[in-house]
Amino acid sequence: MACRHPLSRRRRRDTQGTALSRAIDGRIGTITDAPLPYDTPFTQLALSTLEHALRESLRANGSSIETIHMVFGLITTGSGIAHAVLVTLAISYERLRAAAESLD
User: Chunked in runs of 10, what are the mean pLDDT values of the chain (104 residues)?
Assistant: First the structure.
């Protein structure tokens, strides 16, 4: 069974014209059914993102890293494709923090 791109399920349910889909397609290309390699190690950027996500989780007294913590990690690393997409969509640390606090 071939591995699928992590966003492929969301993309099928989403409309083609959304800002998120356009931003992702513009940065990494469209989704294909090509399998992902199993031996891909974490990059330094991925490890940094996970570290930042862990810090956000600990800051919120969490016991696990949730999706919101990963987004904070992506914002605070300051580089990478995901960070660039978030910046393109005008998502800043401050706006994300305000949105997260309004959910609590």
Answer: 46 52 62 60 83 90 90 92 92 91 81
Residue 84's nearest CA partner among 45, 33, 36 is: 45
Q: Which amino acid is at 37?
A: P
User: What are the residue ranges of CATH 1.10.1780.10 in the chain?
Assistant: 42-104
pLDDT of residue 36: 58
Q: Does CATH number 3.40.50.300 belong to domain 42-104?
A: no
Q: What is the pTM of this model?
A: 0.59
Secondary structure E strands in the chain: none
Max Cα-Cα span within the chain: 41
User: What's the pLDDT at 43?
Assistant: 81
Instruction: Say how far apart CA 60 and CA 67 lie, in whole Å.
Output: 13
CB 54 within 8 A of CB 60: no
Distances (CA, A) of 61 to 1, 45, 71, 73: 39, 24, 17, 16
